[in-house]
Amino acid sequence: MLRFIDHHQDRPLVIVPGWAFDHRIFAALGGPYDYHIFEGPSMAHLTGAAEQFVAERGGRKVSLLGWSKGAFAVCEFAGRHPELVDELFLVGARPSYGAEELEQMQENLRKNKTACLKGFYRRCFAREETQRYRWFKDTLQESYLETTSTERLTHDLDWLGQVTIEPEAIRPVEKIKFVHGAADAIAPLEQARALAEALPQSQLITFERTGHIPFLRDDFWRRVHES
Prior knowledge:
By secondary structure, this protein is an alpha/beta fold. The protein is 42% helix and 17% strand. The chain has a single domain, classed as 3-Layer(aba) Sandwich (Rossmann fold), CATH 3.40.50.1820. Helix 8 links the parallel strand 6 and strand 7.
């Protein structure tokens, strides 16, 4: 369930991707970690996979990065096992998704999956991110359109309607960083700011002229670790 990407760092980072994406969106992301990217059949399997991973490491702490939909999943694990979390990175996070918004996405999927996903992917990039959006279109978009099943997309939207990020649940985690694009159209910045303000130990790191995928920036890890 965890795809290993070896950066020869001996410092594991469990990553959970966002809706309608998979491990390939992280292909260009370097950084001071070895990546273990969640690929389970559903978000409900993340906690079990993470628990098994930690157990295999002898109970040593692990860093977690949850992006968008994935932020809910890593917060669920962190809330249950704060003593096992070294760092918690919440990228493009928001407290919840409303029923009306999710129902509209479900309807759009039923009508035309390709048009729905193309529209969603475009909204993930700020207007100024021309090169990053072109890279995504040229390398990943067509494959995502062909291989991402409507059943999985629908199931994940149903799951998103049932989960929330509750600051109180992850308050015991000592190191939390919210990382956000200032021009995020999927998860507005003010929602991440509200979460960060509810957690005094956390930091909010923002990238100007950046949308929902700030980790595509070359300076992502440098900015995150400098803060």
